[in-house]
Each structure stands twice: as structure tokens, then as C-alpha cells.
Design goal:
By secondary structure, this protein is α+β, with helices and mostly antiparallel strands. It has two domains: 56 residues, N-terminal domain of TfIIb; 143 residues, ZPR1, A/B domain (Jelly Rolls), CATH 2.60.120. The chain has a six-stranded mixed β-sheet with strand order 12-5-10-7-8-13, with helices on one face. The chain has a four-stranded antiparallel β-sheet with strand order 1-2-3-4, with no helix packed on it. Strands 9-6-11 form a three-stranded antiparallel β-sheet. The longest helix has 18 residues. It starts with 7 loop residues before the first strand and ends with a strand.
């Protein structure tokens, strides 16, 4: 059973409007992974921040999970603001951007986030037909994955070691210095024509 503690609040200054905002800190003990700290803040001006920190020193890591059935949709996923998600079979990459949020979800939740972006791409009226067609194809593939009719590989890489796929079936490996250095950490913005396969939050 998870040991969720009562939240702690600290006050700071909003980096956008200089107003006063509260940061919420709450720890949690996640089975198979360890103790984490959730932090979040939101200002009336629109600024928001959220992240999940692993409360132990972590090395840059890559988690790989083979999604093979509908049961895999329930596998827990921890994605930090510095985590990059890849689905090679669909040529999908989700890289961290300046406004990226951390989240703890499951594989189905990750796929739903991708579906939301693809739905937006399909509604763009000024895009070439092949872009809309590609978005439609990816949406169909995601529906097959959810039903267990298509096998794919889910990969999460994090240069700060704060992301994970929590399952005995997940393969964990330590990234080399070069591999970690090449990953984005939330400070680079992708161009619009990269959005279809390179999602950014």
C-alpha cells in the first residue's frame, strides 16, 4: 500500500508576474520503484508547474517495455519533465518542452495523450493532405494497440533518471554519457513541421 503523506506548502514568487504563489510538496511511496516527491504550483496569471522527483540519486536511464496485449494498458508509467517517450514502430517521439508536465499514469494514459495531439493535427485546415492522412493512420494504430491487436515497444529515456516504466517485464539500462547528453531536457522547442511524429509538451 502506498504511503502518501500530507502535503507541505511553501510560498514563492511567480517567475512571470512576480505575484505570490504556493508550491505543493507531497511524497509518495510507489511499489517497485521507491519514494517520490510530487511538486506543483499554479498562478492566476496562467503560469503552472508540476514535476515528480525520485528521492534518491539516479543515473540516466532507459526503460523498454514490449506492449503485447490489452492487459499491458494498466502498466504504470512515470514520466518526469525531462523524460523522452518513444514508440519506434509508429515513429513517434514525445520530447520535453518548456511547458512539459510530469505525470504518473499508465500505458493507456500515454496513448490517450498522443491521441489528443493527433486529433488536433487532423483539425488543422492548412496542412497538406498527407499530414492529415498520417495522423488518421496513427490514430487507427493506437486503437489497435489498446485492443491488444498490435504489438509495439514503449521506450522512456531520462537523462536525470526520474522517469520509469514500473513493471517486472520492463527492461532497464543505464545510458552512456553521450546518450544522456543528446536527450532534450525541456528547453528546446520543436518546429511545427516536426509535430506529427515528434510530440512536445
Amino acid at each position: 500500500m502506498n504511503k502518501v503523506t500530507k502535503p507541505i506548502f511553501t510560498q514563492t514568487t511567480c517567475p512571470l508576474c512576480s505575484g505570490s504563489i504556493l508550491i505543493t510538496w507531497q511524497s509518495d511511496d510507489i511499489p517497485f520503484f521507491g519514494e517520490v516527491m510530487y511538486t506543483s504550483a499554479q498562478c492566476k496569471c496562467g503560469f503552472r508547474y508540476a514535476d515528480t522527483f525520485i528521492l534518491t540519486q539516479r543515473e540516466p536511464t532507459r526503460f523498454t517495455y514490449k506492449v503485447q496485449s490489452a492487459n499491458d494498458m494498466n502498466v504504470r508509467v512515470i514520466r518526469s519533465t525531462s523524460g523522452t517517450i518513444r514508440i519506434p514502430e509508429l515513429e513517434i517521439i514525445i520530447e520535453p518542452g518548456p511547458s512539459s508536465d510530469s505525470y504518473i499514469s499508465n500505458i493507456e494514459g500515454v496513448l490517450c495523450r498522443i491521441e489528443a495531439v493527433l486529433g488536433m493535427v487532423r483539425r488543422w485546415k492548412d496542412e497538406p493532405p498527407e499530414i492529415t492522412l498520417r495522423a488518421h493512420e496513427l490514430l487507427e494504430s493506437i486503437e489497435q494497440i489498446k485492443k491488444g491487436e498490435m504489438e509495439v515497444t514503449l521506450i522512456i529515456e531520462d537523462p536525470l533518471g526520474n522517469s520509469a516504466i514500473v513493471s517486472d517485464k520492463a527492461h532497464k539500462e543505464i545510458l552512456s554519457f553521450k546518450e544522456a547528453e543528446d536527450l532534450k531536457t525541456g528547453v528546446i522547442i520543436l518546429e511545427k513541421d516536426e509535430l506529427l511524429n515528434n510530440f512536445q509538451e
